[in-house]
Amino acid sequence: MSRSLLSITPRLFQPYRCLKQQSVKLKKHPRDYPKITGNELWRRKFRTLFQYKDVNKDGYLKKVDYEMSAWRIIQYMDLSGEMAADVMETQLQMWEYITANAPYMEGITLNDFTENCLKAYNEENTRFGLITACCSEFDALDLDANGVISPKEHAAFFYSYFVPAEHSPPVFRAMDTDSDGVITKAEFVQGMIDFLLSEDPKSPYVNFFGPLAN
């Protein structure tokens, strides 16, 4: 399994609805971040990300985790019909995309996830595609496709990963830098890129995916 993870693990953050290039105006570009050393803060962030994406808590990232995440979004937002189907389709496309080079793969372990992300996010090609990747993540959370993420949509995002809903408001406020009550694509992308690449403990985006794991 590890042989192919080196190329597919970064796809956890790459576009899964399409590969259309997107761009937004950022205060800090991915290329502006120094090389990641893999310090304890960075590893805690990625343990946190893994643990939340491992929805059924079996120690692996699997297709069922993406299905469960979709169902929780549908439940929280009380979706039905086409919108519910679209949420499920998006999650399944995400799983199919990240395993495209290894369709036989049954799951991704925490160690493989962390070590391969550390290598990948120090590569120029991966950083070049991060803006488009994060834009696609934003599009998946913008459930009504109105160009912004509302507090309820953000809470649904946390709920889908079993992150307690009370942790959503402070993270939302950190991303809503102009305090207008919604998260724009630029605000979301800047926060996610900083979470993935920064090792600064004072960053306002340390808890982008909720409270850090031990």
TrEMBL record:
PROSITE patterns: EF_HAND_1 (PS00018), EF_HAND_2 (PS50222). One of its GO terms (molecular function) is calcium ion binding. It comes from Lingula anatina. Transmembrane segments: none annotated. Keywords: Calcium. The keyword Calcium applies. It holds the Pfam family EF-hand_5. The keyword Protein transport does not apply. Residues 171-198 form the EF-hand domain. This is Uncharacterized protein LOC106165433.
